[in-house]
Amino acid sequence: MTRHLRVRHDRGHTVLELRGEIDIAAAAEIVPHLDMATAEPGARIVIDLTHVEFFDLSGLRLLYRARQRIADGPGRLRLVCAHPLTLRMLRITGTSRLLPPWPTLDAALEHPEGASGPL
């Protein structure tokens, strides 16, 4: 756990709950924890942006890093985001097509295995 990250397990998933301002300094704190969580074969990861107040390109890089590390194996990555400005950035950059955001953590955790998030 860091100032910008809380890691916990919920319903068979590792939840990386990002908090506060996710900028280059925060990303440097988060990367080692993200890499550890995504290193496990078949990792089921949820990145929760519910408590994020600011999210810049460094945050996008974290999402792409996690997706790339999970994409080559049997694991799964889900994203939780409902903040309008962050959602807008995800749409503009195309990230929401690669990693469709769920509106709540419960929705991301309760949905069937093969389903992707709402657009």
Automatic annotation (TrEMBL):
PROSITE patterns: STAS (PS50801). CDD domains: STAS_anti-anti-sigma_factors (cd07043). Residues 3-112 form the STAS domain. GO terms for molecular function: anti-sigma factor antagonist activity. Pfam families: STAS. Belongs to the anti-sigma-factor antagonist family. NCBIfam families: ant_ant_sig. This is Anti-sigma factor antagonist. It comes from Streptomyces caelestis. The lineage of its organism: Bacteria, Bacillati, Actinomycetota, Actinomycetes, Kitasatosporales.
